[in-house]
User: What shape does this take?
Amino acid sequence: MTFSTPAALLLLFPAAAFVLWVAWPAVRAAGKARRPAGRRGATVASLVLRLLIVTLLVLSVAGAQWTRAGDDLSVIFLVDASDSMSPEQAAAAGQFVRQAVAAAGADDRAGVILFGRNALVEQPVQPLLGEEEWPAFASQPQRLQTDLAEAIRLSLALFPAGGARRLVVLSDGAATTGDTDQAAALAAASGVSVDTVYLPRAAMGEEFVVADVSAPSRAAQGETFRLRVTVDSTAATAATLRVLADGAVVYEAPVGLNAGSNTFVVPLQAQEPAFTRYQVQVQPDEAGTDSFPQNNQQSAFTTISGPPRVLLVAAAAGPDSPAPPDEAAQLRAALEASGLLVDQVTPGELPASVTGLAGYGSVVLVNANAADLSPRAMEALRTTVRDLGGGLVVVGGPESYGMGGYFETPLEELLPVKMRIDDEERFPPVSLVLVMDRSGSMAAEEGGALKIQLAAEGAVRALGLLKAGDELTVIPVDEAADEVIGPLSATDREGAAARIRQIGAGGGGIFMRTGLEAAAEVIRGSDRPVRHIIVLADGADAEEKEGVPDLINSLTAEGVTVSMVSIGDGPDVPWLRQMAELGDGRFHLTDQAANLPQIFTQETAAIQRNYLVEGEFFPAQVSPSPLLTGIDETPPLYGYVATEPKPLAQVVLQSGQEDPLLATWQAGLGRTVAWTSDATGRWAVDWVPWAGFPRFWAQVVSSTLGRVDDSLLTVSVAADDDRARVTADAQDEAGAFMTGLELTANVVDPAGATTTVALSPVAPGRYEGTFEPAAEGAYFVGVGPQEGAGDAAGRPELRQTAGWALGYSPEYQATTGNPALLERVAAAGGGRSLSPDPADPLGPAAAFTHDLESRPTSRPLWPWLTLLAALLLPFDVAARRLVVSRGDLARGWERLTRRPAAETAPATGRSEAMGQLFEAKERATTRRPQSPPQPVEPAGPAALPVAPPPPAAPTPTEAERTAEPSAEEGETLAARLRKRRG
Assistant: This one.
């Protein structure tokens, strides 16, 4: 027996002494007094029980444990699942594990860990189930790296206590990260033996690797620079060297590779200003072979400086376009006149990736509707501006801001203005009824969500745009209008949103008249001055059209407007468009349910007509800004979209109603500008011919340019083992190092996820930080002052963006395995190098050889000791409270050992008992003298009867007294009482 807290055993002596001190007076009194012997024995027994209970409790506090030596063995197999392991090697590893398990003992246990860049528990350590029941490997660790050290550390935490412990590593030995030797030494120090199994790669023929591609981090437009390429080859062979710039081939030539390292210098010319990714590919000729094509390409980034590029996003001009022909023409001409390079696309062509947007210094949206922008494009725009320091300018119009469905989108998050205005006087209360199609087609899935869920989210978004005095009613309709939700008050948005999100799809088509009749009943019961109905229908499944035009006419006569939204371009679309015109509303056609939130919020803003403010006014400057440098006066404007400034926004110009007209702010690392009027002949008809028009827009757009060629920062990214290191060098205009800066780097990976890295000073003017690349592809790094870094946060010259590319996995860097590493691991871990051959004495069966020192196992005893002490406590109480004589013990023993009598015994016993009773009665009668009757005096009529006094006990005669039996030891209590009474 061992103890986890042996010092607690010192409590045994004072505890026992205290019990003796308390109980000893009672023991002495029991010994001196004339008490039965049983009572004295009970006192001593109680003392012994108390001492035993105290001893058990002290042993429990000391952590008593039962320690025994065992012969069981626990083995954990560490299986390499990185990219360097071929399918044949993986199959060999699985076969080794199954064969080893088949040779295990009955008490042995086994577990499996699969590792690559990380380590995952495939099978916890448990008793073996047999070879046929061992499951196939299913875990999928990251395959870009091999971190054997992490797998060893994880395994040490999985071993059960006690018994012999062994690790078996199955790998090609190509560890690319982690300190494997240190981990093996740690295992040996923990009493764990480490065996290794080398799984060789298949014999390779001609294998070459693009080891490195280097390009200058920056180059001027038109400049010729050199791209340096290093290729390692196992044999002399012929190949083709190809260079691609952003996917376009810019160089291609045949090359000859010698065995060993080969270096090639490729001259290139910098083209348009952008982040340019140069991808180098080396392909074998038709007669050559190559085992791993993954390592035949590598990439590098170069920032080409020159005139900034701007992406102008505007609807295409044409007779069918809602925008006038000059929607963006005048603005583009003004920007190009200032020296900016402008590319123009439609909202649907806005790039949906950071890679497509990173080459532009700023993006200008001109009267763009959010429903025309894909959700992915808006997310990419948010990442480019907020995390990489890009710029954004939004030019207003009837299809923008709140009127364009910007509410609760990434656009509203980036802009310095809010789409909702909380002004009850300016915006009268609204009653909005949404008739939602819940037919069977709404159960279809789109982008991982059901269409009905996207429609419900649109209703929730519309509810969020309403004010406290507004109300919303949602009527789901298929063949009937049931489960009506509302009218809901906008004051309880969370509770109302939860009810709306519970709407599910039904069946059949949407009955138009049934839905509109239900909406009419609700809307006619509302006293709100603004009443509007939105009908969401399937463009190919709108049924029950009869009577709908008459119903809409009656509603419009009562001041109710009706809009139609069609999902899909079906045969019912023309009729739905006619009903929207008949209801003085708007018609929306979309082929994606994901656009419904923007459409619903656009409709919600449109019915509150005060969001669209039209009339002549002169902009009023309310704060100084570089945006108005050299501009002292402006022409009048004739309209804008009402918004509300955010708390940290800088409002430069405002309207006569004190609504923001020109506002700007810092959005993360980027800068955004909101212009709520337009730049066309609609509202800015006097601005287009104004001489200051080009200057104004050049200054507005230039203030948001993300990449600054004269930045005070020089940013570079380089691989550092399994991590990437970001380095930012800061020098002022005089060339002096800038110290004391608080810089941060936002790293955007190929999937669009952003990681923020704090850069720490490592030298005068130099700041560094590292991040862990998760996947191959292009990485963009935006560096700038940390949020809240004081005056530095607003300095654009302290912002810079760089690109970096992670090529193929380091697993493909080496062309052979590394058996020497596995041998070192086995030597450091006190293990052996096993063979995958079952016939070898050190084959799979050797994994469960019981040749290791077994560590003793300990089981805690304190729970059982505490339980025993609790069970003895009632016996202690009984010994002190109950008195049991020897006679009681003798009679109890007699009853336990007495044999049953014959069948006539019960009758005989009863007759003898009756006889004894009669004799006792007769003796009592002879002993008690007969008293003569006493005369009773008559009493009055009211007197109560008086009970006669009890007769006096007869005095026994001398003969009777001598006839009584004498009291003997062991006489019962009843007998003694009768004797004393007689």
User: Anything to note?
Assistant: The longest helix spans residues 37-61.
